[in-house]
Amino acid sequence: MIEFSLLSALLAGLLGGVHCVGMCGGIVAAFSFRADGSTPPFRLHLAYNLGRVTSYVLFGAIAGALGASLKLASFLPAQTMLYVLAQLVMVLLGLYLAGFNQWVLVFERAGGAVWKRVRPLFQKLLPVKSLPQAVLAGMAWGWLPCGLVYSILVSALAAGSATSGAALMLAFGLGTLPNLLGMGLFARQIQPFMQQRWVRRLAGLTVAGFGVWGLAVLVMRYL
After folding, report:
1. pTM
2. Domain limits of the chain?
């Protein structure tokens, strides 16, 4: 079932680009344009995203370890309950991306307090002038409160181990790369397309479908 979860996380990151445009557009714009009007080299955009995905992997490892500790503590139904919760959150995430509800924003508000502490450190790293600085800025960017990230973290919690949780968030992070790298290089061109209603609906309902399928797989195991 881990292969299915990895695929779900990868595609959620890819299709979640409709959310990334709105959530991370300002940060990507800050990375994409210099004071002299020039465009940063591609290697800097790679470094930003390397740092961001590194933070995601760290979060996934912590969440996976926490989920594993619940299992080791003899909470027999805990792993199944976490799996069901992860699939339900995936459905809610898809409906949010499609524009049908705002429930996932609860996760973003919960992370706001942490971002208030990280944001000053992030701002001190701007403007970015070197690759190490870009990686650090990207790692700070990974702490931005994001309902999409937090929703996938619930799946990492249900992954059963630190390694599996880290792998899940790595898959998700890799899924976000095409959109966020594309925004960095073609910010003005890609944003109007990603914000079209039909694009949002198609992407969101596809992500919700992963959650529904995950629940169906669980039900079929017990039939």
Report:
1. 0.81
2. 2-222
